[in-house]
Fold this sequence. Notes:
The complex is a heterodimer. Chain A is an alpha/beta fold. In chain A, 38% of the residues lie in helices and 23% in strands. Chain A contains 8 helices and 10 strands. Chain B is 80% helix and 0% strand. Chain B has 12 helices and no strands. Chain B is globular. The interface between A and B is medium-sized, with 28 and 22 residues.
Amino acid sequence: MRNAPAVALDDVTVAFRLGDGAAYTVIERARLTVDDGEFVAIVGPTGCGKSTLLNVVAGLLSPAAGRVVIYGEPLAALNRRAGYLFQSDALFPWKTALENVAIGLETAGTPAREARARALEWLKRVGLGTFGDRYPHVLSGGQRKRVGLAQVLIRDPRILLMDEPFGPLDAQTRQIMGNLLLDLWGADRKAVLFVTHDLEEAIALSDRVVIMSAGPAARIIGDWRVPLARPRDIAEVKLDPAFHALHRDIWHRLKAEVVKGYAQVEGV
Amino acid sequence: MPRAQLLVLQVLVAVMAIGAWHLFSSYRIFGVVVLPPFFFSTPLDVARQVVAWFATGVIWKHLWVTLWESILAFVLGSIGGAGVGFWFARRPRVAAVFDPYVKMINALPRVVLAPIFTLWLGLGIWSKVALGVTLVFFIVFFNVYQGVKEVSPAVLANARMLGMNERQLMRHVYWPSALSWMFSSLHTSVGFAVVGAVVGEYLGSAAGLGYLIQQAEGVFDVAGVFAGMFVLAAFVVVIDAFVSLAEKRLLVWRPTAGEGKP
């Protein structure tokens, strides 16, 4: 199926069973399609189930109801076409940067020698060519994210899932990482689902911004197309009037949800 | 503190302690010997005894026996503990069934097992090895169990997304994590292996440092007891230095490998 969307969520509901037996609905009837090569950002208040949604697309979590369809095929197990860059540190601490990047190829049966050579290429591509023999604990937060990015991209997934990947980084590093991501993505345009709570980052990076309501039973409540030309530079694109207009639009809708979300978190 | 200064101070502590011991055991102070040599011996007698052991060479046989028992206890206990720890961690149902028995055996003071081991395995090295194994086993077992259980969920999810099958998960995720926990308890488990060997020897044997101490004690040879203790202490310090070396090499990837340890 050539024209099938990369990801299609068909009324997906996710629920957990709580300790007392009651069901807790995290996401309710989410409907979303991501086309092949499309960069979609998901924005929502804290605790609304954005990460849960990514886990469902990754196949790490199965929905209570609804279907996940990947390139026209219903997802039954782990999503083999997806690469996942996690929010928290997910590098293997006992492997060097090079080994961390190479492992994704080695598991697929690539001979170790070739895997290492290609891993080194990828490390160079993310600007860490000379850091191959370092262990994750001596790398900075930004460097670890670069290694993580190389680790995921070396497997050349058609779908890239990213869960607030630049969340813990400082503002400058985020900008640099954003541009690096756009560069790498521009090379072969994978379908991207990028979760963030930062609306500016979402608009600057993506083709479409999707808004989720505050949880529980979060829904998708808005879908905006980003009318900014590519290639973009994250810092410059934020000066574009179209950027501001869109930001105002989306923020107007998002604000109410953010307030609701905080009220729940704080128990007000 | 600079290294040299630290070393001087450390040596000073030994000099002061031994000096005081010498003073109070060899000279009368206001007409009394504070530390009667019959009970406390004297540093010179102890030193003479140690030198005699090394000069005649009798000590080597005993050191060798104790070392060999410790190594066997450590290796066998580690293999058993790691294997069972791994098995229990990956099969929660098995762990749940055996849980009360594991707790029971671990709560048992291992010294009471020594006579039984002697009965079963004789007076040779194996009864001491068995005692050491029961000590080492549980330390390694609990650490490996914990290591497999405490793999970060993010790392695990990442490994699965990177296409690892069950066998690769074992090799690249569970095993390194378990090993790191095991190595972090290396000092304790090696120490316990030595304890098992020496206590076993003390309770009944024909060779080893524990035997040497027990023999001296039997004839009220306090100098012999102290000399045995000094040799034992030096023995443990040397082994511990090797463990530190191994640890530094094996845990290079850890933020604080080998630091902050007493």
